[in-house]
Design a protein that fits this description.
This protein is of the alpha+beta class and 349 residues long. The chain has 11 helices and 14 strands. 23% of the residues lie in helices and 25% in strands.
Length: 349
């Protein structure tokens, strides 16, 4: 419900907690930033200001080069001092309220690499940390910054509207849909059962976007994340809906287990702009999705040999022309890209 995200930063500058909505503003996943140094996310020119606001008296001790200094509860062996509660102002004191601006690293494509955030909150004691001093005695709870971080520049009405319709889907490694949240069902119109019974999931993707999505699918299988991917999905009403998606691999016991995709609906003009940019740097046209995309005469450059992942046919097998488009005795392989496009209703185009 907030136009921002919640942030709790310990006295030594570690992110103790961030709400998951940090992903909507900075592009970092909640699990990527928790228990990491806040100073890795902050513009170098603003780091000293953040240090100052972490200190109860706005006067942090000098830290060794490259080591974040803060208000007291510093990790052992550092230059900061651990304070006892009786050395500090009362917790409800207005002296501990904070409101300041810092530039944070931002991975989203509409930023210049940094986003100015206004942090508003206060220093409060962070309990249950069980930290010990050098002599082994237990340290009392130290002050941490509890703040709500909101963009300095308010978002446009359009951004607010599209942000409110961000939805998430869950897939097998070959992209077969497994689950979809409530907002996704509203945007696409399908029930979860309808999404699951239809094959690999590529039959919901526009023919002109399939190889582009498949290429990013391969990248995700190699690196764990697809990067921003803009493509069209087929809705229940037989219309195409532009979405901007980012897919991430989820691991279990160090093996990839399933894919989570975060998707944001786009207006047609925005999708068309992405399409024009895309065709500039890819070696084949995506304007229509004509049959030449699926011919087996010339394999695509850059696609590796078929990957195997938990017994599933991975995307590289489907996209390589020699495998994906091959006719078999019982017809075309339904898990290939050609099989997916042939299952689509031509009236949708």
């Amino acid at each position: 419900a907030l136009n921002g995200f919640v942030l709790v930063v310990t006295s030594e500058g570690l992110i103790f907690y961030s709400s998951h909505t940090i992903q909507d503003y900075l592009g970092f996943h909640q699990t990527d930033v928790m228990h990491q140094s806040i100073f890795e996310l902050i513009h170098t020119e603003d780091q000293q200001e953040f240090r100052r606001n972490l200190h109860w008296a706005l006067n942090p001790p000098c830290a060794p080069e490259g080591e974040p200094s803060a208000e007291g509860g510093k990790s052992l062996g550092s230059s900061a001092v651990a304070y006892k509660p009786d050395q500090l102002p009362p917790e409800n004191s207005s002296f501990l309220e904070r409101s300041f601006v810092c530039r944070f690293r931002c991975l989203l494509d509409n930023s210049s690499g940094f986003l100015a955030l206004n942090l508003q909150g206060r220093l409060k004691f962070l309990h249950g940390q069980n930290k010990r001093s050098e002599d082994g005695s237990a340290l009392p709870p130290q002050l941490a910054l509890f703040a709500i971080s909101t963009p300095l520049q308010p978002p446009s009405i359009l951004q607010i509207r599209t942000k409110n319709m961000i939805f998430r889907t869950k897939h097998k490694l070959d992209f077969t849909p497994l689950a979809c949240d409530a907002k996704g069902k509203i945007v696409l119109g399908y029930t979860e059962a309808e999404l699951r019974m239809c094959g690999t999931g590529y039959q919901f993707v526009h023919a002109a976007d399939m190889l582009y999505c498949a290429e990013n699918h391969i990248r995700m299988m190699k690196t764990g994340e697809s990067g921003l991917t803009v493509f069209r999905l087929l809705t229940k009403e037989n219309r195409w809906k532009w979405v901007q998606a980012n897919a991430r691999l989820v691991y279990k016991n160090s093996k990839p287990e399933y894919i989570i995709v975060t998707q944001r609906p786009l207006v047609d003009e925005e999708g068309g702009e992405h399409l024009r940019k895309r065709s500039m740097h890819l070696p084949f046209t995506f304007a229509t999705g004509e049959a030449l995309l699926y011919q087996s005469a010339c394999p695509l450059l850059g696609f590796p040999d078929p990957l195997q992942s938990k017994g599933k046919t991975s995307k590289s097998r489907k996209t390589s022309h020699s495998h994906g488009g091959r006719s078999q005795k019982d017809g075309i392989d339904p898990s290939s890209l050609l099989g997916a496009v042939m299952r689509q209703d031509k009236a949708a185009y």
